[in-house]
């Protein structure tokens, strides 16, 4: 192969521009995550090699340097183990891409892919009570346009369990809001990996969304827009949820994000008797194993299960004692 094939930059360019969006068809946010990882990695490796980024070779990206980079993320940048593993997954994906296309680099790729992911402890699932959730939704001042949009957005996040990006990307044509806003009201949500799901929405959610039509900025097809009259972004949604949580005294000091509202939706569905497989489809989970975490965190369900299995006569004498000794019972069988 020509010498230029060993230049790291040309491989990365093809990986990001050709392979990920076309062959893998990855979501935009996933592409940005891979891009950000490599943007951090290249200057780090260049500083260790003592050469400009543009002159780096594939071999300069050694397993030792990748390991040092991962340590740098945790120690210097304060990244969590989950973030460290996410960055490593992107680097290993790049190594695999290179090895498939250049047999001479298979050994190099193997050393990169041999770097292990760190074991992580699953973080505690945070979710809100119905009272706290309703207090957040009631917070915005609906006398103003901004307040009506914020109220409808919080209501939609709780009702649908949508991710922040999914809600920000929601378009007018994704809503089905009949005039009577009955059971047929629903929203089409475009999820991760291009997957589409349809979620029913409550009557009050449908009414709140329908009320926004007269206030929508000219030419805006996004369902939700900010006070700057521009479509909400993922970061804008996060800030909105933080502001709404700050208005609720019971939530003081807690970190409330759109994903907490998503967890709240799932836990409240579970408490209402909705089965896990339906919740999986509702949230857009690929695997039921992901949804099972909600069964694990519902303490009330565990307490009820304990009560249902505990004997009613826990304080009475065991039946084997009230009917004579053990030998007498054995003879009676």
Protein model, in words:
- The protein is mostly helical and 333 residues long.
- It has two domains: 3-113, DNA polymerase, domain 1 (Orthogonal Bundle), CATH 1.10.150; 130-305, hpI Integrase, Chain A (Orthogonal Bundle), CATH 1.10.443.10.
- The protein has 17 helices and three strands.
- The chain has helices spanning 8-23, 28-49, 63-75, 81-101, 106-113, 130-138, 145-160, 164-168, 203-210, 234-246, 258-271, 276-283, 288-291, 293-297, 299-309, 319-322, 326-332; strands at residues 175-176, 186-190, 196-200.
- It has a three-stranded antiparallel beta sheet with strand order 1-2-3, with no helix packed on it.
- Strand 2 and strand 3 (196-200) form a beta hairpin.
- Helix 3 (63-75) runs antiparallel to helix 4 (81-101).
- The longest helix is centred in the N-terminal third of the chain and has 22 residues, at 28-49.
- 26% of the residues are buried.
Uncertain stretches: none
Instruction: Write the element-wise H/E pattern from the N-terminal end onward.
Output: HHHHHHHHEEEHHHHHHHHH
Note the beta-strand portion.
Answer: under 5%
- Average pLDDT number: 87
**Which class best fits the helix and strand makeup?**
mainly alpha
* Total count of domains: 2
Provide a quick synopsis of the model:
By secondary structure, this protein is mainly α. Helices cover about 55% and strands about 5% of the residues. It has 17 helices and 3 strands.
Strand and helix layout:
Layout: H1 8-23, H2 28-49, H3 63-75, H4 81-101, H5 106-113, H6 130-138, H7 145-160, H8 164-168, E1 175-176, E2 186-190, E3 196-200, H9 203-210, H10 234-246, H11 258-271, H12 276-283, H13 288-291, H14 293-297, H15 299-309, H16 319-322, H17 326-332
Antiparallel strand pairs: 1-2, 2-3
Helix pairs in contact: 1-2, 3-4, 4-5, 6-7, 7-11
